[in-house]
Structures are given as C-alpha cells and as structure tokens.
Write a structure and sequence with these properties.
The complex is a heterodimer of chains A (112) and B (113). Chain A has 112 residues and is mainly β. Chain A is built from no helices and 11 strands. The radius of gyration of chain A is 13 Å and the shape is globular. Classes of the chains: A mainly beta (112), B mainly beta (113).
Chain lengths: 112, 113
C-alpha cells in the first residue's frame, strides 16, 4: 500500500501565477482533505472532498479551489498566488467518520 | 474565540525519562481528540485517538488522557529515546465526525542521549 501520495514535492511560482497540486489517497479511502502549514504553525484546514463534492471548507478565500475525481484522487488549485501562500500543502485521506487521517509528505510551495 | 494551545517552548528531556506534553482548548466541544507526530519537512503521522467518553488510552510507550471538564489532554511518552525527537501535534475534530481537524501549533520534543 503506497499510502497517500502527493505531487510535486517542491514547487516555485511567481506572484500572480496559478498552481495545481495533486493527491492520491490511501487505498480504500474515499475522503480527501487539504491543509496549509506555514512555517512554525500547525496545519490549517482548507477544504474536504467526499463523493466528488466539497463537503466542508475552512476559512480560505475563493482563490483556493479543488476537485475530486471518480477514483477519489484530488487536486488543489490556487489562483493569483500571493507571497503569503508559501507553505507546505498537505493532503490527508480517511475512510469513515471519527477515524484518523493519513497524511501525504506534502508539497512545499514557494511563491517569489 | 476558539483556541488550541500546546506547550509553546520546546521540551528537552534526557533519554529514559517520561515526556509529558499538554494540549488545552477553549470554546470547543470535540467528540474526540488526536495526537500526531511530525518530523521536519514531512507530513504528520497519526499516533492516538481518544474519544470524549474515554479518560485514558495507551499504545506501547504512549499514553493519552482526555479531561473534557478541564478541556485538556496530556500526552506521555515513557522511556523516551532520541528517536522520539519530533514535533507533536494535538488535533480536534469539530466537524461532527467528518474528520476535519483543527490543529495546535505543536510542541517540539528533544530527547538527548
């Protein structure tokens, strides 16, 4: 079992550009959540996808959007990048309610 | 406002001793609480989950307590080893079981030989 895989591992973008990050959940998991982790902070919840719909959303602007595909994989899109979007972006998958989340290794995004 | 607070300073202990990490929260009523370990540049790794009706949970050298009256969880690592050095994150699920987590900032634990 490959666990949760994310791509790419590192990315450098320029202010104003758009970026797409990808996530494949752990085998058997149907729910994908995305988190942003700034340096020295805990992960902050962005949104969660289940059955190809956004089920929950944290306090992030509309520049952050996502998608879930029929095979449960997911994408996170960020438009009009700001310097403050530089962070480690984490994808987590889970199966049933009230269970632990399995995290990927993250994508380190640097906006210059 | 809602807050989750963990030991703000790094915790330095000697190998073999017990490490105790604290997680306090305000204005939440979580159904359960989780602890994760995170190494530099890596994603968090799940350690333990404890439900609101459980007082204590154990797994090998790890023990978690959950006091919903005090709004506090304590995380213990007994017989600590240098390999236990990492950042430990406390997380609450406030989404009624959808597994959307609110994290504290984490506590860095350093175990010296």
């Amino acid at each position: 079992d490959a666990g949760v895989t994310q791509s790419p591992t590192h990315l450098i973008k320029t202010r104003g550009q758009q970026v797409t990050l990808r996530c494949s959940p752990k085998s058997g998991h149907d729910t994908v959540s995305w988190y942003q982790q700034a340096l020295g902070q805990g992960p902050q919840f962005i949104f969660q996808y289940y059955e190809e719909e956004e089920r929950q959303r944290g306090n992030f602007p509309d520049r952050f959007s996502g998608h879930q595909f029929p095979n449960y994989s997911s994408e996170l899109n960020v438009n009009a990048l700001l310097l403050g979007d530089s962070a480690l972006y984490l994808c987590a998958s889970s199966f049933q309610a009230n269970t632990e989340a399995f995290f990927g290794q993250g994508t380190r995004l640097t906006v210059v | 406002s809602q807050k989750i607070e963990q030991n703000s300073e790094a915790l330095n202990i000697q190998e073999g001793k017990t490490a105790t990490l604290t997680c306090n929260y305000t204005n939440y009523s979580p159904a359960y609480l989780q602890w994760y370990r995170q190494d530099p540049g890596r994603g968090p790794v799940f350690l333990l989950l404890i439900r609101e009706n459980e007082k204590e949970k154990r797994k090998e050298r790890l023990k978690v307590t959950f006091d919903t009256t005090l709004k506090q969880s304590l995380f213990h690592i007994t017989a600590s080893q240098p390999a236990d050095s990492a950042t430990y994150l406390c997380a609450l699920d406030i989404s009624s079981g959808y597994s959307t987590l609110t994290f504290g900032k984490g506590t860095m634990l350093l175990v010296s030989p």
